[in-house]
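thought: fold this chain, then report.
action: predict
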Amino acid sequence: MKLENEEDIIQQIKNDAWMMEILKTARTLELPDWWICAGFVRSKIWDELHGGDKRTEMADIDVVYFDKRNTDESAEKRLENILIELLPNVPWSVKNEARMHLRNNVDPYISTIDAIAKFPETATALGVKLDETGELCLTAPHGVQDVLDLVVRPTPLFKSSNKLMENYLKRIQDKKWHEKWNKVTYSD
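observation:
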């Protein structure tokens, strides 16, 4: 299957039993404004665009949500532990985006999609979830063209600040995505 648009991405994820099991498990938490984001989606796309013969191992599976009522980090750890009990072989990471602006030293986010839009790279600013009816949803605040074109570029927020651009450049240097996926290019 060729990946050319959002519908193709959604279909690839629907066809992936492992990803769907992770999504179904995360959905059981019934978190407000939740998504599984970043490398979970990007890696699937890049693996497929590089032949799709094996899954790239991920350091973590990022479950993000938005809840202003409880921004205590211990709540996130409790949620991680629930997920670990349900699927122990998955490297879960749970973060409440209602507090993550503090860590990232930016203005408060207004939603999880707002937080995803302010990730460092457009190709990573992606999220998927199962809605109330079980339908798979994709959010891509900067579109999907960069991830489909295997291009890593900073999001507008990161381009707007020299300090954030320094963080972006260090991040792409540390991630070395071009070593895992040899067709990946970098742009500003």
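thought: worth noting. The chain has a mean pLDDT of 95.
final: tokens above.
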